[in-house]
Design goal:
The protein is α/β, with parallel strands linked by helices and 520 residues long. It has helices at residues 3-6, 11-35, 89-96, 111-120, 140-153, 176-182, 246-259, 293-315, 351-354, 381-389, 405-409, 457-462, 491-510, and strands spanning 64-70, 99-101, 104-105, 186-192, 213-217, 228-230, 233-236, 267-272, 322-328, 358-361, 370-372, 376-377, 420-424, 427-433, 436-439, 472-475. The strands form three sheets. A ten-stranded mixed sheet has the order 7-6-5-4-8-1-9-10-2-11, sandwiched between helices. It starts with a helix and ends in a 10-residue tail after the last helix.
Length: 520
């Protein structure tokens, strides 16, 4: 394990909880065995009132859907995106058999807001989940330190100024799992949730948000205590530092779910891995085997997991009836390859923080080995998957995502988005429209004053000292690395992009939750 990296954020939390988790290890493993394959509990039998319905006259075949989500994997980590250091033969195979997107974005550069965007089809600002959630059982000292960090951040010395406005996914939000279950899908979430600590408040449990079954934890692997659950049964009070098993457990549960026959109904599997998020815990089989250090080890183990899922589908005759989606929640953190020379990393609005891998395989419906270079975002999964399942969009709310089934299948050549927006916590920093990406203001993350936005005392002190300037304009088709600022060359483009941002902000201010009047 890379303890150097761990101490940057997590040593305090991990150390406070490690002792208790060790005592629970044997009992927890026994509980895993006893509960494997258990039927869903009453928690999943509480349907929401949904403002959506099955499409009348839908004649298509509803595909099985496997959505594999990595945690903090850079777009440049798989071999099919140009990596020559880390081996990813199974992810590369997926790309050879499907479509690979080059200009795909997460809807946020941090875990929680990106995941809420993926599951609801709406930017995180609409839900209030604008910053990664912390464990509800954190030690008091950790809470104090985070509060102090936010205070320092408001001065411009630390890039952590706010916490989420709510403690978890609001009960009235509709997830893609809610919609798919309406269409008769059996649904399961496996792995990291990070949309509310349901060990403290059951309303945030995945089974309250469209999933029939759940196996995993409420938090990420660096947020301790982090209890392990099967459905609504706690198996371990804290996974602690016993994390070498996590990728194997997630994979086993995913395979078991696929292989369980529930009357031939289509299924939706949301497989949310813990890796390659810090701290790195490759299992013994993969430890020290890659050329990319501990980070490379966990990526290669993830690739092996992808292979096991693909083999399971083939073994069970489900390969041709299943859409497999592979992506990540944001760019890499301290290690990993953001992409082809991308600027920035996790937590930043540059390409390296937002761009993510996206590979979609659906034999017979997606052309093998194809590449899509049009902009898309993970908020697009919601309308795309509901469309494939023959379900209408909700009639009572705005959905920010667009149906990209045409891009996936190669029928359409242009993105359905006029603009994609880049939030840093609660603040809108930039927009992409076509080939242009524009920042009104952004921290440049450069020496000697990395956090230099002109909104804090330190940023004001740095202003007009021949350091960073704003706004910034990049042609990301020619300059993916955002190396060359063209704002002074193209003031008319800046003006147009500023109008797009201002109009969007005005719409959010008028109706933050994006609600529609009946009949609208």
């Amino acid at each position: 394990m890379n303890t150097d990296r761990m101490t940057r954020r997590t040593m305090l939390r991990l150390g406070a909880a490690a002792a208790g988790s060790a005592a629970l290890g044997y009992a927890g493993l026994r509980a895993l065995e006893r509960t494997a394959g258990n039927a869903p509990t009453a928690l999943a039998a509480r349907p929401k009132a949904l403002s959506m319905e099955k499409l009348k006259g839908f004649a298509g075949k509803r595909p099985n859907i496997v959505l594999i989500l990595c945690d903090d994997m850079g777009q440049g980590d798989p071999g099919c995106y140009g990596n020559t250091v880390v081996r990813t033969p199974n992810i590369d195979r997926l790309a050879r058999e499907g479509v690979r997107f080059t200009d795909f974005y997460a809807s946020a550069s941090l875990c929680t807001p990106s995941r809420v965007g993926l599951l609801t089809g709406r930017y995180a600002v609409r839900t209030g989940l604008i910053f990664p959630l912390q464990s509800g059982g954190q030690p008091v000292m950790a809470r104090i330190l985070q509060s102090v960090a936010r205070g320092i951040g408001r001065l411009g010395a630390f890039d952590m100024t706010v916490k989420s406005f709510v403690d978890g996914l609001p009960a009235d939000e509709i997830t893609v799992a809610d919609g798919l279950r309406l269409a008769g899908y059996r649904t399961m979430a496996v792995g990291k949730w990070h949309l509310g600590d349901f060990s403290k408040d059951a309303q945030y449990h995945p089974m309250r948000h469209g999933f029939d079954e759940f196996f995993g934890t409420p938090m990420s692997n660096d947020e301790l205590p982090n209890p392990l659950y099967r459905n609504d049964t706690m198996l371990e009070a804290d996974i602690g530092l016993d994390q070498e098993r996590l990728t194997g457990l997630v994979t086993k549960e995913a395979v078991d779910f696929i292989e369980r026959d529930r009357g031939g109904a289509p299924f939706f599997l949301y497989m949310a891995h813990y890796s390659p998020h810090l701290p790195f815990y490759p299992s013994e089989k993969f430890k020290g085997k890659s050329q990319g250090g501990a980070y490379g080890d966990v990526v290669e183990e993830l690739d092996h997991s992808v292979g096991r899922v693909l083999d399971c589908l083939r073994r069970n005759g489900l390969e041709n009836d299943t859409m497999v989606i592979f992506t990540s929640d944001n760019g890499p953190w301290f290690e990993g390859r953001p992409g082809n020379g991308f600027r920035g990393r996790k937590g930043q609005s540059y390409e390296g923080g937002f761009r993510a891998p996206l590979i979609v395989r659906h034999p017979g419906r997606v052309r093998a080995g194809s590449v899509c270079a049009e902009p898309a975002m993970n908020i697009d999964f919601f309308p795309t998957l509901l469309g494939a399942a023959g379900v209408t969009l909700p009639s009572d709310r705005l959905i920010d995502g667009k149906d990209i089934s045409g891009l996936i299948a190669g029928r359409e050549k242009r993105s359905p988005h006029e603009a994609l927006f880049f939030y840093h916590h609660e603040k809108l920093e930039g927009v992409r429209a076509g080939e242009w990406k524009y920042f009104r203001s952004i921290n440049h993350y450069n020496w000697p004053i990395p956090l230099d936005k002109p909104e804090t005392p330190l940023g004001i002190a740095a202003k007009d000292r021949f350091l960073g300037s704003w706004p910034n304009l990049y042609n990301v088709k020619r300059d993916e690395g955002e190396n060359y600022d063209l704002a002074t060359r193209h003031p008319e483009v800046c003006q147009r992009m500023e109008k797009i941002m201002s109009a969007w902000e005005a719409s959010i201010k008028r109706d933050p939750r994006g609600r529609l009047a009946p009949g609208a």
